[in-house]
């Protein structure tokens, strides 16, 4: 029989680039007071418990009872083929979530890799919009998917940190022979990152979309922005590196709330010989203290995990729009359909235009690239 659970549902206005902490299903009696100490994110006997590293975040608990769990586990009495398939997918997704939650950690391992690979396969398969809409409407899936996204974000952070340190260690070992490695000499190391090609493909889509709206010096000249910022760059700033490769004169400003991620990112740029073309800020873009002057940048990227729900993303975008120069292009990574199980979705109806933007383009890949791309332009302040 299914036990009753509390699921921590994220609800915060602050950006949390490349989420480093994780919240989990919390097993507790239903009479327990629904309050959580944010510095003890995991309050159960889960083996995922670890020292608190999260700042003050506003949590709200959403109760999911056994009836809710059965709701998305059990198809209707006379199910259609789509009903049965949708419930089968949810059952498998819940099994993956339970398996991830039961592990002692989310660092790269055969178990973690296998579970996440299967989850990505499920979410990026070519499902019909009807199936995706039906599945996402099932009672109880919102809490499951919100909790799963947190685990996926934590696993992604662990994966990037692991590969960044691995690349740095290899670079240090060869530093005596080549004190300042070039981009070409280190590209092989970067390409060993499991999702390297996905980042390259996503960046190409973003650049192609951006260049349709960037001013060019002539009809034969490809638009080339000089100053770009990436919010939520993490320890392995692959998109920033792709920017530097495509736009040879560009400088990228990397922003992340995690001090360790900023440090590792800076060390990696130094090892690659690209430190002169990057700057960094350890900053919470949703907070009150400002370090980055958004007026300085022609293009600003917002990573998929900056703002774990649509409203949080819109609030961050509104702050940027108030400071950025009108005409500044902002690239927001979102998701569509079942891909929203992996990454939070920016709902364009949630006040994007009121936040100070013109919506220029939305791109939904049907390839292995998981994220959708939303191109926005900062409007003139009236």
TrEMBL record:
Residues 1-22 form the signal peptide. Pfam families: NAS. The keyword Cytoplasm does not apply. InterPro entries: Nicotian_synth (IPR004298), SAM-dependent_MTases_sf (IPR029063). Keywords: S-adenosyl-L-methionine, Signal, Transferase. Coiled coil: none annotated. One of its GO terms (molecular function) is nicotianamine synthase activity. One of its GO terms (biological process) is nicotianamine biosynthetic process. Belongs to the nicotianamine synthase (NAS)-like family. This is NAS-domain-containing protein. It comes from Lophiostoma macrostomum CBS 122681.
């Amino acid at each position: 029989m299914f036990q009753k659970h509390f699921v921590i549902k994220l609800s915060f206005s602050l950006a949390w680039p490349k989420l480093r902490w994780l919240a989990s299903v919390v097993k507790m009696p239903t009479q327990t007071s629904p309050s959580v100490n944010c510095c003890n994110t995991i309050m159960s006997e889960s083996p995922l418990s670890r020292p608190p590293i999260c700042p003050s975040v506003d949590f709200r608990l959403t109760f999911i009872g056994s009836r809710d769990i059965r709701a998305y586990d059990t198809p209707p009495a006379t199910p259609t083929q789509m009903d049965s398939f949708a419930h089968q997918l949810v059952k498998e997704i819940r099994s993956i979530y339970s398996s991830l939650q039961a592990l002692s950690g989310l660092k790269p391992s055969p178990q973690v890799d296998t579970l996440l690979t299967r989850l990505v396969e499920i979410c990026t398969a070519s499902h019909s919009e009807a199936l995706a809409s039906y599945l996402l409407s099932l009672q109880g899936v919102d809490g499951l998917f919100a909790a799963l996204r947190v685990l996926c974000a934590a696993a992604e952070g662990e994966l990037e940190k692991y590969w960044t340190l691995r690349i740095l260690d290899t670079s240090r070992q060869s530093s005596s022979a080549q004190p300042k490695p070039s981009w070409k000499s280190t590209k092989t190391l970067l390409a060993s990152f499991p999702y390297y090609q996905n980042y390259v493909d996503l960046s190409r889509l973003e650049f192609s979309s951006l260049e349709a709206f960037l001013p060019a010096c002539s009809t034969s000249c490809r638009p080339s922005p000089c100053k770009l910022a990436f919010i939520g760059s993490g320890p392995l700033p692959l998109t920033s590196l792709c920017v530097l490769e495509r736009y040879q004169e560009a400088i990228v400003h990397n922003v992340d709330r995690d001090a360790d991620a900023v440090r590792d990112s800076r060390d990696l740029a130094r090892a690659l010989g690209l430190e002169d073309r990057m700057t960094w800020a350890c900053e919470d873009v949703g907070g009150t203290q400002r370090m980055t002057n958004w007026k300085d940048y022609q293009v600003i990227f917002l990573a998929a995990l900056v703002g774990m729900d649509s409203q949080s993303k819109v609030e961050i975008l509104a702050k940027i729009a108030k400071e950025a120069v009108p005409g500044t292009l902002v690239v927001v990574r979102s998701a569509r359909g079942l891909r929203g199980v992996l990454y939070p979705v920016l709902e364009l109806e949630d006040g994007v235009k009121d936040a100070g933007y013109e919506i220029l383009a939305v791109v939904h890949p049907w390839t292995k690239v998981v994220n959708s791309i939303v191109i926005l332009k900062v409007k003139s302040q009236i």
